[in-house]
Design brief:
With 606 residues, the protein is of the alpha/beta class. The protein has three domains: 13-140, Roll (CBS-domain), CATH 3.10.580.10; 146-315, Reverse transcriptase/Diguanylate cyclase domain (Alpha-Beta Plaits, 2-Layer Sandwich), CATH 3.30.70; 337-577, EAL domain (TIM Barrel, Alpha-Beta Barrel), CATH 3.20.20. 43% of the residues lie in helices and 19% in strands. The chain has 23 helices and 23 strands. An eight-stranded mixed beta barrel has the order 15-16-18-19-20-21-22-23, surrounded by four helices. Strand 9 and strand 10 form a beta hairpin. The longest helix is centred in the middle third of the chain and has 21 residues, at 281-301. 38% of the residues are buried. Bound molecules: ligand C2E and magnesium ion (2 copies). One magnesium ion (MG) binds next to loops.
């Protein structure tokens, strides 16, 4: 860009300050041409037309004076500056908003698109080449793509781009680095209790503290949610530990938002580049992150609010698995890693099975089969549960449709995570899936766990009522495992209750359990709720349940969860062993020696 000082004789528009050559609107075209001829470096002049400045560039003038057919000069020799001005679209507001400027440029006609623009900045007019706008925009976009908008910290992509050169391929070709994996403790509770606005403010404030605890050269990254990674450069373990302690101590002071004093803690995991073998820089960074994540999970398990460090010679397999689950989970949907199995409900008085529960199964290339007990809470933590939940709803509706088309309609119960309920889209997602597959609402039910409802009772109650109004059944799952069970029954609109396996386990051996279950069944009946017993494994349990008037039973005694095709095969193959007569189709009892292959009890701490 070239801007010349005005000739002293020229009237300069006061507001514009100075900096560009400003000519009055009645300046003859010949005079302007002479100016350009005299100064080859002059790119443009500003024309002041009755106080309104416009830009006249050399290219525009040349175009007009030459003319497409060469008659331009003859036509324009005697016109004034204002007649030479191009169509509007060269003047930009004083605050040069790059996006707005780019929009102006792109809206221009092709022949004017690449001409300079005039910006009336506070310190004077500025002539801005189009290339400068797009270069600025590309810097802006790159900045946005590599940073987290909420906290302004680098994002995961930034770490993946800039981290590997810092880590190097070996510690000898670069100075030692470390990763601190930082995770806020129970952040979900803050979000659920005070709302997302407060949650966001907390994350922003914590990010500022994180930055203050680290050194300028360190790369502080928000990986997502309440998870951060700090890449410490040129650091020994003692220094890394002291930075970690500083971060832990930074939370001693409460975070204040909207008059709330929020006391938060964090758990950290440390990994040193000296822990890991040589490899490509990107692979070493990945290993470092995984090791630090594993150390953090271990520290959570050990009581949170501390720094975890894993002996690289003895990696904690269980936490390594959890860390791997986190990393693999986002790929599962894209790679068709999920499937649904279906476990029948048996009507205890008729023996018929006309409903099933959909249970999610995940088989991963690296991890093998992963139980929902292991991965659902991870997905809730990472937010992947939203996409997974939508997939489950869609797949279940598609299956309900197939069964209905095949002439054996089966209602499918879908498990819904508390996090899905908190997001508030459940009613919409379910109804959209029903419409998509042309399935009546009576063929879909949902199961929510007690904790699901506890976090935001009014919102949960409103959504559940909307579902019930639409004809979708709503059962409270794992009933009896949360502490305010009775209050839940009172406050939530429900159509069914599923009694947790822990009650059923002892029902045929422990009289107290049987009395408790009898009480719950009476309560459920009084409230017109359909009662289902979960985890029924023995005939004796089923006999007690029948005696107590329980409606449905589910469990390995009746059937393990099966793929849809196997449910199809077992249709109408009722066996005498079940001890029931028609009507309806039933499923033969599963051999008691065959446990659900995926249900490996794993009590990972969240
Ligand atoms: P849940 O909804 O209470 O499901 C019952 C669990 O008990 C299932 O485990 C089932 O395989 C198992 N089970 C059924 N009968 C018996 C039995 O007789 N004995 C024993 N020992 N276990 C039995 P699974 O499939 O591993 O699922 C565990 C939990 O994971 C589910 O508990 C549910 O809370 C959650 N889950 C499963 N699929 C989904 C899903 O699609 N979305 C969400 N949000 N959660 C899901
Ligand atoms: Mg369930
Ligand atoms: Mg259950």
């Amino acid at each position: 860009m070239h801007v010349r000082a005005p000739r002293p004789a020229e009237p300069v528009i006061g507001d514009l300050g100075c900096g560009a050559l400003v000519l009055p609107g009645d300046t003859p075209s010949g005079e302007i041409e002479a100016l350009f001829r005299a100064d080859r470096a002059l790119r443009a002049v500003v024309i002041n037309d009755a106080g309104i400045p416009s830009l006249l560039t050399r290219a525009q003038l040349d175009h007009r004076m030459t003319g497409r057919l060469g008659y331009g000069r003859a036509l324009n020799a005697r016109v004034e500056a204002t007649d030479l001005l191009p169509p509007p679209g060269t003047l930009l507001p004083p605050s040069l908003d790059l996006r707005a400027a780019a929009a102006v440029v792109l809206a221009r006609q092709e022949q004017h698109r690449y001409e300079d623009l005039l910006v009336l900045a506070a310190d004077g007019p500025r002539i801005v080449p189009v290339s400068e706008i797009f270069e600025g925009l590309s810097v802006l976009f790159r900045q946005a793509a590599l940073h987290d908008p909420l906290t302004g910290l680098a994002n995961r992509r930034h770490l993946e781009e800039q981290g590997p050169p810092l880590v190097g391929a070996t510690d000898s070709d670069s100075s030692p680095t470390a990763i601190l994996y930082v995770d806020l403790d129970d952040f979900k509770i803050t979000n659920d209790t005070f709302g997302h606005r407060t949650g966001d403010a907390v994350l922003a404030e914590f990010s500022a503290r994180l930055r203050a605890c680290t050194r300028p050269a360190d790369l502080v990254t928000r990986l997502g949610g309440d998870e951060f990674a700090v890449l410490l450069v040129d650091v020994d373990e003692a220094t890394a530990r002291s930075i970690a302690q500083r971060i832990l101590a930074s939370l001693a002071e409460p975070l204040t938002h909207d008059g709330h004093d929020l006391r938060l803690t964090a758990t950290l995991g440390l990994a040193m580049s000296t822990d890991i073998d040589d490899g490509t820089p990107a692979a070493r960074l990945e290993d470092l992150l995984r090791l630090a994540d594993t150390a953090m999970l271990q520290a959570k398990h050990d009581g949170k609010r501390r720094l975890g460090r894993i002996d690289p010679c003895r990696p904690a397999a269980r936490f390594a698995r959890q860390a791997l689950i986190r990393r693999r989970l986002p790929h599962a949907l894209a790679n068709a890693g999920f499937s649904l199995h279906y476990q029948p409900f048996m009507n205890i008085s008729t023996g018929s099975c006309t409903a099933v529960e959909a249970l999610l199964r995940w088989e991963d290339q690296e991890l093998g089969k992963v139980s929902p007990v292991e991965f659902i809470h991870v997905a809730e933590h990472t937010g992947d549960i939203h996409a997974i939940g939508r997939w489950v709803i869609d797949t279940a509706c598609a299956q309900a449709r197939r069964w209905a088309d095949a002439g054996s309609p089966r209602a499918i119960s879908v498990n819904i995570s508390p996090v899905q309920l908190a997001a508030g889209n459940l009613v919409h997602d379910l109804q959209a899936a029903l419409r998509r597959h042309g399935v009546p609402a009576s063929l879909v039910n949902i199961e929510i766990t007690e904790t699901a409802a506890i976090t935001d009772l009014p919102s949960a109650a409103a959504q559940l009522q909307a579902l019930i109004d639409a004809g979708i059944g709503v059962a409270l799952d794992d009933y009896g495992t949360a502490y305010s069970s009775l209050a839940m029954l009172r406050d939530l609109p429900l159509t069914g209750l599923k009694l947790d396996k822990s009650f059923i386990d002892l029902i045929d051996t422990d009289p107290t359990s049987a009395i408790l279950v009898a009480g719950i069944i009476t309560t459920a009946k009084a409230m017109s709720l359909t009662m289902t017993a979960e985890g029924v494994e023995r005939d004796a349990q089923l006999a007690v349940l029948r005696q107590l008037g329980c409606d449905n039973a589910q469990g390995y005694l009746i059937s393990v969860p099966l793929p849809a095709q196997e449910i199809d095969l077992t249709q109408n193959t009722r066996t005498a062993a079940a001890g029931y007569g028609p009507p309806g189709w039933t499923i033969p009892r599963a051999p008691q020696t065959r446990p659900d292959p995926v249900h490996t009890p794993f009590t990972a701490s969240p």
